[in-house]
């Protein structure tokens, strides 16, 4: 019985030794796999850090471009305000010209022999008024179309750049 137990004990020790060797191999393989995964993860982290730096640079560039667009927008708004002020001045001038015409009409009605000359002057003033109104309308139309075109250009570029930032 003793020999049988010793034989079983030897077999168990051998089996234990084999299990330890197998366990050690498994541990080493796992260590290799963990090291490989760690190296892969570190490489991925480096790549992501580089991409983050690139994206930050892109965002900075786009912020600068956005600031330029805002500045240009403010300039155009200021220009529009100035044009509107000029428009108000032109309207006042038109009102003044209308008042002048009215005064001339009163003078013409008082004097019959000056009627023809005054009538001609009135027609000339009306022509000038129409011309000024047409000129005013064309100037306003031109300014409006230029501002619309500029805003459309800026808004188109801004949306494309903004989509890049959001993505």
- Secondary-structure-based class equals mainly alpha
Task: Report the end-to-end length measured between terminal Cα atoms.
Answer: 78 Å
Query: What is the radius of gyration computed over CA atoms, rounded to a whole number of angstroms?
Result: 45 Å
Q: Per DSSP, what share of the residues sits in E-state strands of 2 or more residues?
A: under 5%
- The percent range for helix content is over 70%
- In terms of per-residue confidence, which ranges show pLDDT below 50 for 5 or more consecutive residues? none
What sequence of helices (H) and strands (E) makes up the elements? HH
Number of strand segments: 0
The geometry reads as: rod-shaped
Tally of alpha and pi helices: 2
What number is the mean pLDDT? 89
Biggest sheet, in brief?
Answer: none
Organism: Leptosomus discolor
Protein name: Centrosomal protein of 128 kDa
Keywords: Coiled coil
């Amino acid at each position: 019985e003793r020999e049988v137990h010793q034989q079983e004990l030897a077999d168990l020790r051998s089996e234990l030794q084999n299990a330890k060797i197998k366990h050690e191999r498994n541990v080493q393989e796992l260590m290799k796999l963990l090291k490989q995964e760690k190296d892969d993860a570190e490489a991925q982290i480096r790549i992501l850090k580089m991409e983050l730096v690139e994206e930050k640079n892109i965002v900075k560039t786009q912020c600068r471009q956005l600031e330029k667009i805002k500045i240009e927008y403010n300039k155009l708004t200021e220009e529009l305000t100035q044009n509107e002020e000029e428009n108000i001045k032109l309207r006042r001038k038109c009102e003044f010209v209308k008042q002048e015409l009215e005064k001339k009409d009163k003078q013409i009605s008082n004097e019959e022999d000056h009627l023809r000359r005054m009538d001609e002057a009135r027609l000339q003033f009306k022509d000038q008024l129409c011309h000024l109104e047409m000129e005013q309308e064309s100037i306003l139309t031109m300014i409006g179309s230029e501002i619309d075109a500029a805003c459309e250009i800026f808004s188109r570029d801004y949306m494309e750049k903004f989509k890049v930032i959001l993505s």
